[in-house]
Amino acid sequence: MTSCQARLETGLSRWLPPAATHPTALHQAMRYAVLGGGKRIRPTLVYASGQAVGSDREQLDDPACAIELIHAYSLVHDDLPAMDDDDLRRGRPSCHKAFGEAIAILAGDALQTLGFYVITHNHSACDSATRLRMIEMLALAAGSRGMVGGQTIDLAAAGCQLEIAELEDMHIHKTGALIRASVMLGALTRPGLAEETLEKLDHYAKCVGLAFQIRDDILDVEGETDTLGKRSGADQSLEKSTYAALIGLDGAKQRANELHEEAMDSLSGLDERADLLRWISLYIIERDR
């Protein structure tokens, strides 16, 4: 995971315009939002999935960068006062606190488009037909039928009591869609991969994505702001429905463990090259303990 993160940082720094590039405020904000640390789970999933099917890491660098740029844009916008209104991200002031709301909005816009630019220029990883499939997958995962749609559901549900099925539907869109795209982008760098293998990897990603959100809900209750790098108790203050609120902390932990086991079953036909995927699933349900 450390090796993947090092490759990612190099790639992101290369794709992001230098801070001195005109207009400087925008490019400084973009670099601030992206290069500010973080666990890099989504790009690591790109590397892990590609490794599991036999792709070289050089083929995975650009898709990993693309997915992280899209994720970083979503965090910048999520933190805005009109959204989740968070002043802290990754242990530092949120982008809008450091650069102002207008520049933060524009930085998020620019990061989103840069993510797609990276995919279109990903000539070393795959042919044009595969790049087109990647673009389609990423657009669906990030758009109204994926991450943005999930955020919309989340905003509308503030102060409401959701049923478990409604909560899972929201998180499958808001968090899960981009995690599933991460796994699939990595797998697509291997030409001619059987659809059955893609389906198994997609199911793994669906389980991991939901487990990731459940763990987030648990940490919002049990975690400390200094450890999390963001404000703890934020979901409670916004009266959001969470797994911890609906089924209790013990029930949420049990559900996360069940999803981990289901994810492991999805990888049962893959050899030791998929061990990083297996490790990430365990890491997700145990992180920040």
DSSP strand count: 2
Straight-line distance between termini: 18 Å
Tally of individual domains: 1
Proportion in helices? over 70%
Give average pLDDT, whole number: 90
**Main sheet: strands, sense, barrel:** 2 strands, antiparallel
Fourth CATH level, the homologous superfamily: Farnesyl Diphosphate Synthase
In CATH, the topology is named Farnesyl Diphosphate Synthase
Strand order of the largest sheet: 1-2
CATH class: Mainly Alpha
Low-confidence stretches: none
Q: Beta-sheet strand percentage?
A: under 5%
What would the principal axes of the Cα set say about the shape? globular
Q: Given the helix and strand composition, which structural class is it?
A: mainly alpha
**What's the total helix number?**
14
Describe the structure in your own words.
This protein is mostly helical. The protein has one domain: Farnesyl Diphosphate Synthase, CATH 1.10.600.10. 71% of the residues lie in helices and 1% in strands. It has helices spanning 2-15, 24-34, 41-52, 57-78, 95-99, 101-120, 128-142, 147-156, 164-188, 195-222, 225-228, 234-237, 243-266, 275-286; strands spanning 88-89, 92-93. The protein has a two-stranded antiparallel ribbon. A hairpin with a 2-residue loop joins strand 1 (88-89) and strand 2 (92-93). Helix 2 packs across helix 6 (101-120), helix 4 runs antiparallel to helix 9 and helix 13 (243-266) runs antiparallel to helix 14 (275-286). The chain is globular, with a radius of gyration of 18 Å. The mean pLDDT is 90.
